[in-house]
Amino acid sequence: MYHYYKLATKIMGRPTIKDLMDEIDELKEAISRRDIKNIGEEANDVIHSLARKIRLPNIVVWKIANQTAMKHATRMKKYNCPRSLRNHLRAITVGRCCCETTKK
Ligand SMILES: [Zn+2]
């Protein structure tokens, strides 16, 4: 699955500060809802974004944020896009998803 994760990172590029802040906001929301399962997922997303932001090697990010990395890898394997199916389909309908502009 690491192969699919590497493809996903090429499409996703590096997160911006705003991307990182958005992930932190999602974590805060999960904490305020006391949603334990979601807190775990969102915390992993924050670690994943931060690790990508500071340019840790893909294999290191894969290991320290594996839950999120696997999520992107699974999506790549299923429908060739690292975004959620909902976001991918929404973007496709207006003709510009990140997965269409990046050559694999
Ligand atoms: Zn897409």
Molecular structure report:
By secondary structure, this protein is mainly α. The chain has one domain (2-101). The chain has helices at residues 2-12, 17-32, 36-53, 58-64, 66-79, 85-93, 98-101. Helix 3 crosses helix 5 (66-79) and helix 4 (58-64) crosses helix 5 (66-79). The longest helix is centred in the middle third of the chain and has 18 residues, at 36-53. It is globular. The chain starts with a helix and ends with a helix. The mean pLDDT is 94. The structure holds zinc ion. The site of zinc ion has 7 residues, from helix 6 and helix 7.
Summarize this structure briefly:
The chain has 104 residues and is an all-alpha fold.
Major sheet details: none
Q: Give the low-confidence spans.
A: none
Order of secondary-structure elements: HHHHHHH
Average pLDDT rating? 94
| Separate helix tally | 7
Dominant shape:
globular
Counting helices, strands and paired strands, the structural category is: mainly alpha
Radius of gyration: 14 Å
| Tally of separate domains | 1
How many β-strands, per DSSP? 0
List the ligand species. Answer: zinc ion
What proportion of the residues form beta strands (DSSP E)?
under 5%
The span between the termini is 16 Å
Secondary structure: helix percent:
over 70%
